[in-house]
Design brief:
By secondary structure, this protein is of the alpha/beta class. It has seven helices and six strands. It has a six-stranded parallel β-sheet, covered by helices on one side.
Length: 160
């Protein structure tokens, strides 16, 4: 199963949802937010309770997400290196470019696979490493790495 989440931001992330058309819908579970519901997928919901989200992260073989910190941390805690498609300000998907900055920083650390071109999404899914045991994947430094990325600090600045 591939779990896709766009988070709860009020602006739709239709660019990511449209890219799902190249997948076998039977393998997709999608949390699609305020955008249009994707047709032909196994399961789709605009929003999910947190426990439902965690169950989806846990059951998924691959996670595709926007660059929301909570979504990335949940995916990592469940053993995934998520594919992260940042919402872009220039495309009217967010208020600024912080998701692009976070995606770039986490991809440089190997904590995420950056999806800059959603037309290549199905190709990138094939590059996602197999999910690891969640006990192995829980990296206590990841929240510090996310904080450093958000504050624009280098990888060496994990103390804060």
């Amino acid at each position: 199963m591939i779990f896709v989440t766009v988070g709860t931001h009020h602006q739709p992330f239709q660019r990511l949802l449209d890219a799902l058309g190249s997948f076998d819908g039977a393998e997709l579970t999608v949390q699609y937010g305020p955008g249009k519901a994707p047709a032909g997928v196994a399961r789709a919901a605009p929003y999910m309770r947190f426990d439902e989200m965690v169950a989806c992260f846990r059951e998924a073989d691959v996670v595709i997400t926007h660059a929301g910190v909570g979504s990335i941390l949940c995916a990592r805690r469940e053993g995934h290196v998520p594919l992260v498609a940042p919402r872009r300000h220039e495309l009217g998907e967010h208020v600024d470019e912080h998701q692009a900055e976070l995606t770039r920083a986490l991809a440089e650390r190997g904590a995420a696979i950056a999806v800059w071109d959603t037309a290549k999404l199905s190709e990138l899914v094939g590059t996602a490493p197999a999910r690891t045991d969640r006990r192995e994947a829980t990296d206590p430094s990841l929240p510090q790495q996310v904080r450093a990325a958000l504050l624009g600090r280098g990888a060496q600045s994990n103390r804060a």
